[in-house]
Amino acid sequence: MVGVGATRRSWAAAVVVLQAAWALVGGQVRYSVPEEAEAGTVVGRLAQDLGLEAGEAEARRLRLVARGRRASVEVSGASGALVVSSRLDREELCGKSAPCALRLEVLLDRPLRVFHVEVEVTDINDNAPRFPAAYKNISIAELTTMPGTRFPLEGASDVDIGSNAQLSYTLSPSEHFALDVQRGEENLESLFLVLTKPLDRESLSDHRLVLTASDGGRPALTGTVQLVISVLDANDNAPQFNQSVYKVQLPEDAAEGTLVARVTATDPDEGINQEFSYSIGNTVPASQRDTFIIDPRTGEIRLRGLLDYEVVRLCELQIEARDNGFPPLSGHCKVVVQVLDVNDNAPEVWVTSLSVPVPEDAALGTVVALLSVSDRDSGPNGRVRCAVRPPSPFGLVATFAGSYSLVLREALDRERVSEYEVEVRAEDGGAPPLRASRGLRVPVSDVNDNAPAFAQAVYTVLARENNAAGAELARLWARDPDEAGNGRVSYSVAEGGAGTGSGSGSGWRPASSYVSVDAESGRLRALRPLDYEELQVLQFEVRAVDAGEPPLCGNATVQLFVVDENDNAPALLPPAGGGPWPWAAGEAAEPGSRPPGSAGSAGSAGSAVSSWSLWARAAWGAPAGQVVAKIRAVDADSGYNAWLRYELREPRGEGPFRVGLYSGEVSTARALEEADGPRQRLLIVVRDHGEPPRSATATLSVSLVEGAEAAVGAVSVSAGAGLRPAASAEGGSAASGASAATNVWLVVAICAVSSLLVLAVVLYGAGRWAPRAAVLAGPGPATLVCASEVGSWSYSQRQSRSLCVATDGSGKSDLMVFSPNCPPAPGPAPKETPQEPLSLLDT
After folding, report:
1. Closest CA to 640 of 461, 786, 435, 746
2. So what's the pLDDT on residue 673?
């Protein structure tokens, strides 16, 4: 044992002087180190050999990953050197396998890289040869045992390899015995004790010899066994086998009880000396003796245990046939069992490194995981093929023998697949093949790659005027398929507005002064009551912005149409042209009446009032149907709410006058008589068609006079209204021609407007009683249809204009014209010049 310790110290000292050679070939670093090297012994400058700068090894986390066995080396964090961390015993690590290599994987971060390091542990002569036992008893019959008789001996074993395990044997000097060493196939040695001279029990009954085994190390180590030879009398013929060596091939998956071989021996003796039995010699290792069993009578050798090619590939059995003579004699033969490999080991898959989650914008070729694959079988049974399921978006790339990288082959989309269950399958080349698999869960992390998208590009919203401030008009919603902050959407009014009115307060107002959008819910609310007469259409954009980095946004256009309510009563107008009121022509006003410019009047000339008084003249004897006066009124609402009708409230019953239902013309119902009195007071009500209807009243005082006075009054009033007097036939003829030309153009205008109205009805087809505030799916406002006892027409919710047409005689009528429904262009609306009706009729 002192020699063994000195050998270990000498080898450890040699390590310091002779560093293990390394080679970087195909991404693999090789080192060698002798076994029993002390802890801290430098195996190699790993960081320097990998091309790393000083300090880079620790910064990039240079580390080792052992494959399937305990690693006795480690990486020094500061220097990046590969050093011995614990006792290296080659025999414990690899047994008799040569070469003995530790296969390690070296990982580097930022970026992730893998290197393969192979550390070969070289053998030193630290184990002496050992015999199975310290004593060996041999019985030899005297005289009958002839010189040259051979007695098999069990050789020594040395767990070292190479020259350190090459044994040589010597026998202590003896005149009767010699040692014969034979080398057979597979470099196996057989020892025989050879009798060189006949024995004489009476001279010497016991012979004691020492058999020494020496290995080839420097210095050599030895082991001994003492041979105790007893000289016996009797039987002089030993059983003889018909073969000295039996060779058998047996698959490793052979079942228990399988017949391995049948040996046969004969003994020329007679009687009890001819009877013999078979047995397995004690020279066979106990592990193999327990695997086989022999029938002592028939010589059949059968399996009693299981074979494993990966543990023992060749078994050598010493078979003995011993007779029953006295002394018993024995014959020997050898049975060599070659174990054949079968595919009984499935591949094994290990995950060395896993980098998850993977961002969905990861570049193609990104390494997701590192895997190691191995199979304990040999030949085709140990060749492994790997595949990944599903085949996309990941793939396998072979980096080294038994090492693979799981890489990204296709672009990821977390909104489509947020997590992958990846299965790596390994299959060997056996028949049938064996398979193994390893499952990996690969989550995909989100990036902000989706902008919010509204359900509609254009939202059309109807809202009643005079709504309450803060009332909800609609709810907008934009979808963002991203998650967390990348999918959290906030809303705001981006741009847009409308022009307001045409008076001194007109101008452009932004949409944010009318409406607001809740940033979280997308609810569209009114900031103030809406007035149809101020604003008919409001077009603006709503923006949805996510909370990603950088943020993405989407827009939608909102068209807000204000639906008219009957919130304006009819307003009476003064005579056309802004001329004087009837009493401004020098006539006396009716007692109690006030001119428009006086205190307490409803307005000045050219403005509308809700109640006023007027007087007119009519000649006695005037025929029925003669127009005495015309009441003019206007309603700021539109459609039905602005459609006016005129009713005569007083006097009730059958009076001398009547009023046109829709024209407002006051005419005689019959011929006027003196019995009707000098003056008639008429109370006329102007009422719209809204719900509920609103009205205004006008008081008309008609004085009954002679025909000449009535004519003079008519000329005065007509001049005040801006109409040409009908004093002469020539003037009447000119007025009649102008009226005829006007009628022609009116007919053309009526036809054109009617065509537009019919087209609007076909395209939009919305009824008056449709919901006043609703979100419609699609751009464009609704078109309402109005009907009454005098017919029906289409009108827009946007704008309306009143056109009163003047004709001579009783054929007078009013025409209401509505502009087409076209949304205004974004930006401030141009100011419109107020348009007066074409003509207003008076007396």
Report:
1. 786
2. 82
pLDDT tops 90 at residue 202: no
pTM of the model: 0.46
564 in Cβ contact with 530 (< 8 Å): no
User: CA 365 to CA 131: how far, in whole Å?
Assistant: 59
Q: Which string of b and e fits 5-15 if b means at least 16 CB within 10 Å?
A: eebbeebbeeb
Name the least confident of 136-140, 183-187, 512-516, 766-770. Answer: 766-770
pLDDT computed for residue 805 by the predictor: 31
CA distance 686 to 630: 12
DSSP tag of 731:
H
Q: Report the alpha-carbon distance of residue 811 to residue 747 in Å, rounded.
A: 14
Q: What is the pLDDT of residue 827?
A: 42
Contacts for 361 with CB less than 8 Å, ≥ 6 apart: 412, 447, 449
Query: Cα 400 to chain center, whole Å?
Result: 32
d(CA 756, CA 766): 15
Instruction: Give the tens place of pLDDT for each residue, 549-565.
Output: 889 999 999 999 999 88
Q: Where are the beta strands (DSSP E) in 123-221?
A: 135-141, 150-153, 168-171, 177-183, 189-195, 206-214
Q: How confident is the model at residue 239 (pLDDT cuts 50, 70, 90)?
A: very high
Smallest Cα–Cα separation from 597: which of 587, 586, 606, 588? 606
| Cα–Cα distance measured from residue 474 to residue 522, given in angstroms and rounded to the nearest whole number | 9
Neighbours of 375 (CB within 10 A): 22
CA distance 262 to 104: 47
**Residue 101 β-bridge partners:** 120
What number is the average pLDDT over the span 653-664?
Answer: 87
pLDDT in tens, 690-749: 889 999 998 988 888 876 565 544 433 332 333 333 333 333 333 334 444 455 667 777
**How many Å is the Cα radius of gyration of the chain?**
61
Contacts of 494 (CB under 8 A, 6+ apart): 540, 541, 542, 543, 555
Helix H or strand E encompassing 15:
helix 2-17
Strand ranges of the sheet holding 42-44, from the earlier edge strand across to the other edge: 42-44, 82-84, 73-75
CA distance 727 to 715: 8
Q: How many CB atoms lie within 10 A of CB 235?
A: 22
What is the band of 110 on the pLDDT scale with cuts at 50, 70, 90? confident
Residue 383, burial from CB neighbour count under 10 angstroms (0-12, 13-18, 19+): middle
- DSSP per residue over 789-829, as a string? TTEEEEE-SS--EEEEE--STT--EEEEE-----PPPSSPP
Average pLDDT in the 629-652 region?
Answer: 88
- In this structure, what token pair is assigned to residue 235? 């039987």
209 and 300 Cβ atoms separated by less than 8 Å: no
φ, ψ of residue 576 in degrees (nearest 5): -65, 150
pLDDT at 165: 77
CA dihedral 561, 564, 567, 571 (to 10 degrees): 120
Q: Please tell me the distance from the alpha carbon of residue 668 to that of residue 619, in angstroms, as a whole number.
A: 11
Closest-CA residue to 90 (of 66, 68, 64, 119): 119
Closest to 559 in 3D by CA, of 455, 454, 457:
457
What's the average model confidence in pLDDT over 780-807? 34
For the chain, what is the mean pLDDT?
Answer: 75
Q: CA torsion 599→601→605→609, rounded to 10°?
A: 160
Of 301, 325, 271, 22, the closest CA to residue 145 belongs to 325
Give, in order, the Cα–Cα distances in Å from 546 to each of 266, 488, 493, 515, 525: 98, 5, 15, 22, 21
For the chain, give the number of residues: 843
Nearest to 765 by CA among 749, 778, 751: 778
The maximal CA–CA distance of the chain, rounded, in angstroms, is 195
